[in-house]
Amino acid sequence: MRRTIKFNGKEIALKGIPIELNEIVPDFRAIDSKLDEVTLSDFKGKIKLFTTFPSLDTPVCDKQINEFNGRAQQLSENVCVIGLSMDLPFAINRFCEKNNIRKVKLLSDHRYTSFGLNYGLLIKDLHLLARSVLIVDENDVLRYYEIVEELDKSPDYDRCLAELENIINQARPLTPEQIASREYISCCEGASPLTPPEINEYLSQLTGWELVDHKKIVKDYHRQNYQESKDLLDDISVIADEQGHHPTTVLGYDHLKVILTTHSVGELTENDFVMAGLIDDLAET
Description:
Elements: E1 4-7, E2 10-15, E3 29-31, E4 37-39, E5 47-52, H1 59-71, E6 79-85, H2 89-99, E7 104-108, H3 114-118, E8 122-123, E9 128-129, E10 132-136, E11 142-147, H4 157-169, H5 176-182, H6 196-204, E12 210-212, E13 216-222, H7 226-243, E14 248-251, E15 255-260, H8 270-283
Parallel strand pairs: 5-6, 6-7
Antiparallel strand pairs: 1-2, 2-8, 3-4, 5-10, 8-9, 10-11, 12-13, 13-15, 14-15
């Protein structure tokens, strides 16, 4: 997936965990206009069209939401259209009232940056969301993904809505791999400790992680300064809370040490290596 976009003719980097087509999408936490928390599970069993954008105060974003609001009038009740940005809930409420937005549920990613980080859509230097359209089916599988290359351009409305029509008409069962992904135990309850051969196999798939006493894995992430080290810690904290799997960290002025083990078991489990992979993805952006 695209890791950079253009803004005023310059390349700018996207931050967060990359997602792939035909995979189960991650959970997220956002806030609606009433300051209530909203997660992916609030749209369970629905086809979800997510559209992200930088700010409602720009003409292109204004048009984007009004365009989807108008086109959504013809969609079935099984389809939810959700817009996300860094706009505050109060600004979202004013915009919806002014523009009579009824068919797009607007959410703020301002409090947690959870959607931006989990879906790889956070603009690193601007702390805004890139412009995108994602279509997620009833089984929470990503079926369509467009990141607009230039931030001041609109998404391809006709293309994404044609794809939405195809998804509505072509239900697909989950594959065994997708079922296994969904069954990942995020909060470690009931997790089984790994054997030494299993630990070595998982460790071989990671880079830079060291095994300590066959009970922990450790990695030091080097950064340019204290602020960059803290920024990485902040990003990890968002993902850790949502995964229910919390690393021990040591913050230094130019590095962050991360230590993973499954506390409820007292040893390493598959969850530790899943979390290590997520942290690596965050650290690379």
